[in-house]
Amino acid sequence: MASLSGLFSSSLKPSKTLSVKALSAPPTRGGDSFSFPHTSKPTHLPLTLSASRSDISHTDAATAAKKELIKDPDALWKRYLDWLYQQKDLGLYLDVSRVGFTDEFVVDMEHRFKAAFKAMDELEKGSIANPDEGRMVGHYWLRNSNLVPKPTLKTLIENTLDSICSFADDIIAGKIKPPSSPRFTQILSVGIGGSALGPQFVAEALAPDNPPLKIRFIDNTDPAGIDHQIAQLGPELASTLVIVISKSGGTPETRNGLLEVQKAFREAGLNFAKQGVAITQENSLLDNTARIEGWLARFPMYDWVGGRTSVMSAVGLLPAALQGIDIREMLSGAAIMDEATRTTSLKNNPAALLAMCWYWASDGVGSKDMVILPYKDSLLLFSRYLQQLVMESLGKEFDLDGNTVNQGLTVYGNKGSTDQHAYIQQLREGVHNFFATFIEVLRDRPPGHDWELEPGVTCGDYLFGMLQGTRSALYANGRESISVTIEEVTPRSVGAIIALYERAVGLYASLVNINAYHQPGVEAGKKAAAEVLALQKRVLSVLNEASCKDPVEPLTLDEIADRCHAPEEIEMIYKIIAHMSANDRVLIAEGSCGSPRSVKVYLGECNVDDMYA
Ligand SMILES: O=P(O)(O)OC[C@H]1O[C@](O)(CO)[C@@H](O)[C@@H]1O
């Protein structure tokens, strides 16, 4: 292993004729030539993983075969037919023919997938699949409650679904209404991460043109963004249902959003509690607040559903149902896909095929980015949704054995053909650091609405042409792609593609031996943010004391840092001052923020109480 690590961190580029020694390390491909992984790549991969990757994936033979395929349409067509996956009930197809994996790679993968399928089976049976947090991982049970390991959970899932449906029906019918309006007309959803991305994606993909309730989101602690949402509601705040979503019930951004919205309600003379709904874990801070304040309704989140896989819990289902989206169809599409992705036959399992292609394309170490290109405006947010699902799940420092691996898979994308006029140029000709996934939707428009804008050609034909043209052009230049095709964007197909990617992420995580269900890295940023705010309070206290003197004593940054007993934090103190000054909360007596050394600061007002705090 030691020698492997040494080879891994080598920055030498081997020639195309690799020596036996070089082959024992895992080379990656750069275009059609080989290159060693960047030095920041994992240096302590498990022996089995790293030792065999070079043997199975990146050989001169594979590259040569790919070149041959590009030149030979018959062989490419055969490869297409050989590998085309179809799920008939869902009208979903998966084409992996434009990923250049070899037969030997597939054989090796079949072997590796045995463990991945076993881990997935155990997860579905209720194993503690998230060992760090001691949690079961049960998002699959949400769409088939017969799978739950405990009967009480089945009742919980079914009762929650029934209560979501009847609450949504009553709101839409005006049986449950706000105090000063005949019915609710708007939803304001407050949440972040998995408590926003799923509902946002579903709304964009599936909400009808004129939904019974229109939805808007507060998904950040940006005051201007919050003001913008509230301002746009205007007098309709009186008929707005505010859904506050937080699994933990203690996420600061969401809490801030709630406090801002409650302030807007107070200022408008409205009773927030009569229009507020909480979706959170039982007894969380949010749950207790909602209970004590007597909010309109509360719906549960479960310990065993992760934020990024929560779209088929109340988190995604309640907002969807309120917009008139058929949530049982969404669940049914996901359940069918779940069933389809349980098979242990690699070739017949679309999630396994995806995971295998990701592994091939990114060398199992995230060496290439995954570009998601849905050719359908309503699927615009799919890449943003997948960003959290994939990157929060797979972006991990350690593997399950404690080795440093710095795993991950970068996801980005918007939509085609719009992106054709933005970054496809680079994808086709520039740095070869990605593989593409095309999401194709066969149905252009609802039946009866199409017309030919030139003889024999509709607007949708152009979109189709752009997709196929881009796929071919990328492949002709050695760029690999996967294509997922659905017949229409419906609750069923959206449920299915979500389930497809959830399973692919779970399987891929097993292949690379990491825990996909925790997010320890997020905590570091949250902790650091809290420390900045604590320092800001100290700065304010120091400034307050100096500003209460007569005459007022403006302080330099060094003096503030000294009095805060934090000389090492002077840069952060400068940034705090600059931010507060931009928001009229401190006054600059001398100098300007542009030249930190010259700045002298004081507060506009002296707060006598604070001096004794
Ligand atoms: O639903 P919560 O608990 O407010 O968390 C929001 C998000 O924060 C994270 O914990 C970290 O980003 C996500 O996993 C989660 O979706």
Q: Describe it for me?
A:
The chain is α/β, with parallel strands linked by helices. The protein folds into three domains: 73-127 and 329-518, Glucose-6-phosphate isomerase like protein, domain 1 (Rossmann fold, 3-Layer(aba) Sandwich); 140-325, Rossmann fold (3-Layer(aba) Sandwich); 521-611, Orthogonal Bundle (Arc Repressor Mutant, subunit A). Helices cover 46% and strands 12% of the residues. The chain contains 22 helices and 17 strands. The chain has helices spanning 2-8, 20-23, 47-56, 60-71, 73-83, 103-124, 151-172, 197-206, 223-233, 252-267, 285-293, 314-322, 327-340, 350-361, 382-394, 424-429, 459-476, 491-511, 520-547, 557-563, 570-582, 608-611, and strands spanning 28-30, 33-35, 85-87, 92-95, 186-190, 214-218, 240-245, 276-281, 297-301, 369-374, 411-412, 434-441, 452-454, 457-458, 481-486, 587-590, 600-602. The strands form five sheets. It has a six-stranded mixed beta sheet, sandwiched between helices. A five-stranded parallel beta sheet has the order 6-5-7-8-9, with helices on both faces. Strands 1-2 form a two-stranded antiparallel sheet. α10 (252-267) links the parallel β7 and β8. α8 (197-206) runs antiparallel to α15 and α9 (223-233) crosses α10. The longest helix has 28 residues, at 520-547. The N and C termini lie far apart (58 Å). The model is unreliable at 1-57 (pLDDT under 50).
